[in-house]
Structure formats: C-alpha cells, structure tokens
Amino acid sequence: MHKLRTVLIVDDDALLPASLHSVLTTAGYRTLTTGDPDAAYRLLAAELVTAVLLDVRLPTMSGLALYLAIVRRWPHLVGRIALMSGDADARDVQAWVHRNPCTVLRKPFTFQQVSDWLESAVRAAEPTASAG
C-alpha cells in the first residue's frame, strides 16, 4: 500500500500556501500549512512529514534558524527541506546556504519546479529496494 506523502508548507503569505496546497493535493500529497515557526515545529513533532517547503523570511523567526532547529531534532529531514525565497541572492542567504547546502526555490518558482524537487526528495526518503 502506498503511504500518503505529507508536505509541510511554512510561509506567512496566505496565497502561496493555498496555491501549493491545491496543486500538491491534486498530485497526491497531503499538505499541512502554517505561517508560524512555532506551529511548524509542533506540527513536525505531531505528524510524519515527508518534506518541508520553508520560507526564508518569516515574521517571528528566520526560516534559516527554523531550518537548523528542524534538522537538529529531525536529522532524517536533511535533503527534504527546500527553502523558498524571493531574495535568494541576498548576502545573508547566500552565506547561509554556502554553510548549510540545501535546495533553494527562488520565488517566483513554477509548480513544476516544486513537483520535481518533491519527487526527488520522496525518492531519497524511501528505503532502497534490494537489487537482489
């Protein structure tokens, strides 16, 4: 039986998570959305999440700091968190990504870019079938 893949979307802009929810549920994903970093952390503690789409600029905490907190507590999510940013070329973001390599989806991105990244992240998360 195929497990339903769950994506946590953390973005304080209401339009982007709603659009991603619509597209991703059509593609067979379950989505959880929040714009609050504390709520995101609580959702991760309560739910089995396959991948995370994380905005860099959040109102109460940097998405970069939240990324580090997430991978510290849930190291299996390394490689399954994509940062979303409208200012991916900002010096602070570039320096952070250089120290903490991860996928950056540059806003505005296409739903195809998100879908391609998710499929790659899901494949990486699934146990390897034996070549036997």
What descriptors fit this protein?
132 residues; alpha/beta; Rossmann fold; five-stranded parallel β-sheet
Structure characterization notes:
The protein has a single domain, classed as Rossmann fold (3-Layer(aba) Sandwich), CATH 3.40.50.2300. It is built from 5 helices and 5 strands. Strands 2-1-3-4-5 form a 5-stranded parallel sheet, sandwiched between helices. Strand 1, helix 1 and strand 2 form a beta-alpha-beta unit.
What is the residue-mean pLDDT, rounded to a whole number?
A: 91
CATH overall fold name? Rossmann fold
- Poorly predicted regions are none
Order of helices and strands: EHEHEHEHEH
- Name the overall outline: globular
The level of helicity is: 40-55%
The number of distinct structural domains comes to 1
Largest sheet: 5 strands, parallel
In CATH, what is the class? Alpha Beta
How do you describe this structure in short?
The chain has 132 residues and is α/β, with parallel strands linked by helices. The chain is built from five helices and five strands.
Helix and strand layout, with pairings?
Layout: E1 5-10, H1 15-26, E2 29-34, H2 37-46, E3 51-55, H3 63-73, E4 81-85, H4 91-99, E5 103-106, H5 111-125
